[in-house]
Design a protein that fits this description.
CATH superfamily of one domain: Acid Proteases
Number of strands: 12
Radius of gyration: 16 Å
Structural class: mainly beta
Shape: globular
Largest sheet: 7 strands, mixed
Strand content: over 45%
Order of helices and strands: HEEEEEEEEEEEHE
CATH architecture of one domain: Beta Barrel
CATH class of one domain: Mainly Beta
């Protein structure tokens, strides 16, 4: 099997090594959750060309709490639903220069969150940037899925399709 060959070829950091579980098969787009921030459903593009995951934040406000740097940010988790606003806070992990697909560099704040997808719950790093004009509110980069997932670029929503995502936020259609 391909996963067994990859596991043998890549050693301890290889496919399927998280918790000794077999790899999860993901499509090129998936619904996931970031529950600690109240993001019950967010459609992400699984982007193996992106090193780091990125989350849409239409405002980003750094502040200090107990001597530690934090980030307060706002998310419109569903495309086309600017009436749905989720305000989030997280400790600042880092600031990094990120090059987008167009070759432009931007300094972004980096935060950590627990992601839930495909029956797994694991910590991921996310950079924050305004993705209002983009089709996906989130990119799930290769560092976030390394070691536990395989991607089938010809399929979508292999971990489950959410027909009415606004219902996850208690909103009417």
């Amino acid at each position: 099997m391909v996963a067994d060959e990859l596991r043998g070829a890549t050693g301890a950091q290889g496919i399927g090594v998280i918790q000794g579980l077999p790899p999860v098969l993901l499509g090129w787009r998936e619904w996931l959750a970031l529950p600690e921030w109240g993001l019950a459903a967010i459609k992400a593009k699984v982007d193996t060309g992106a090193r780091t995951s990125t989350l849409h934040a239409f405002y980003v406000d750094p502040f200090r709490r107990f001597g530690r740097q934090y980030i307060r940010f706002g998310v419109h988790p569903l495309q086309g639903r600017t009436d749905l606003v989720v305000h989030c806070e997280a400790p600042l992990v880092d600031r990094r220069l990120v090059r987008d697909s167009g070759g432009h560099c931007e300094e972004r704040y980096v935060v950590m969150a627990a992601a839930v997808l495909g029956g797994r719950n694991w910590p991921i790093e996310l950079t924050l940037t305004n993705r209002e004009s983009m089709r996906f509110r989130m990119l799930l980069g290769r560092n976030a899925i390394r070691g536990w997932a395989l991607v089938d670029p010809g399929r979508s929503f292999l971990s489950g399709r959410i027909e009415h995502p606004w219902a996850a936020y208690g909103l009417p259609a």
